[in-house]
Amino acid sequence: MDVISEAIGAIRTGSANARRVKESGSWGMRYAAFDGTGFHVVLNGSGWLLTPGGAPRVLRPGDVVLVPSGAEHGLSHASSELDALPLAVMSGDPPPPGPADFEFLCGAYRLGHGQVPHYLRSLPSVIVVSPDYDRDPQLRLLAGLLRADTAEQRPGAEATRPALLDLLLVHVLRQWQGQGRAPDWPQVSDPAIAAALRRVHRDPRQPWTVQQLSDAAGMSRTAFTRRFSAALGTAPRAYLASVRLGRGARLLRETRAPLASIARQAGYSTEFAFGAAFRREYGISPGRFRDARG
Q: Hey, what CATH class is 3-178 in?
């Protein structure tokens, strides 16, 4: 499985939300940090993106702001201080009819359990993509579909929203990769560590040992563990467990396969071993996770 599909599958275990926002006059809002992945798509007008410690950036129609791991950020009618903005009020109500100075779509997957995948955490905390809509007209169509879907609460929204969020996120990440800014695996500058990551992501079900991965990287186990942990902020065993359990979580939500089958597909020899590891990572049993909504 490619890394974008793997990442989308992992965050899909969270709750999907989307809404359309319209603002006029003097306006501004600050989005607090959260566990998940979110985005904004500018539909009309211009505004400013504000981030902690970063220079304000002007946003124009068509721009997409991607927050891969839920970092704090803000939107405003003018360049200002992020801390001066009021917290955004999240409402499911559609915006009032009529024109507005600034209109955008806001979508997010909020994770109730587990962590944002390593790949998304390896990306910049806030990304702005100015898509080439001529080369990727599907992205414009998806934004239009999501805009229409958020115009009113209609039957089937619990099915359409996640599907549209999935597709839109995939296209935005493809655009980011196409601009040569995103790697095929979590971004590391160390080619030896990258070689080990390729093996993990291409077949996480393999009974990888740290020794096998260090051999693939062409270094001693001790040196490999030290360099891997420095590059990714976690030890090799913990990283592999996170990738496997992310796949298991996706299968729990998307299929009705028995736990024993999911355990094998996630790279665990027994249902018991999978369950114990899952509880450590997600703080909930696989069965309860499958039954929960988010």
A: mainly beta
